[in-house]
Design goal:
globular; two-stranded antiparallel sheet; 61% helix; 185 residues
């Protein structure tokens, strides 16, 4: 046997023994149930990334049933007059924090996110501020502390798999739209 083959055989034997030894430790750990931990870094699915693109263009995408109409045409169809200024009402910091609480936010998350979304520091989150905050979760901007806090909250409220999908993100935007409508009523 040549020295090269002999050396490779020794390395292979070493790796095999090391792997065999760690298998028993791994199997004993595997027999113990592990608590599901949310992912440290949460990303957006391709579809959710598209929704943040709409948010970046000032378009609020909602899903499911809204508490009321969002536009004047829908309002006319529903028999309720809703002006453009009513549809763009700001949501108070308190109401925004209640919305976040419905997603399971802690007190510190509610404070951090409300302060981060309230860009002009007027104590309320406008539609534009909300959309800019959602848009900031996309691409390379999604790694900021504020964006990750929001994505982790939305993911934990959903399936907690480390990827926010379009349904999970739409639940947040729909909740904000409903908070706006309650304010407009």
């Amino acid at each position: 046997m040549s020295p090269l083959i002999s050396g490779l055989a020794s390395v292979a034997s070493f790796l095999y023994n090391a792997a065999s030894g760690s298998k028993s430790a791994a199997s004993s750990r595997a027999s113990q149930p592990a608590a599901a931990e949310p992912s440290a870094v949460v990303t957006l699915s391709k579809e959710a990334e598209a929704l943040t693109g709409f948010a970046g263009k000032g378009i609020l995408m909602a899903s499911g049933k809204l508490d009321g109409p969002l536009g004047t045409r829908a309002a006319a169809d529903a028999g309720t007059a809703l002006t453009a200024s009513q549809a763009d009402r700001s949501v108070s910091k308190k109401d925004f924090q209640e919305l976040l609480a419905s997603f399971g936010a802690t007190d510190s998350q509610k404070e951090q996110l409300a302060a981060g979304f309230d860009a002009n520091q007027d104590g309320a989150i406008s539609r534009d501020e909300f959309l800019k905050g959602v848009a900031a979760t996309s691409g390379t901007k999604g790694g900021s502390e504020l964006s990750q806090s929001l994505l982790q909250l939305v993911d934990r409220h959903g399936n907690a798999n480390g990827v926010v999908n379009q349904t999970e993100l739409a639940q947040l935007t729909t909740a904000f739209a409903n908070a706006q409508l309650r304010k407009a009523a």
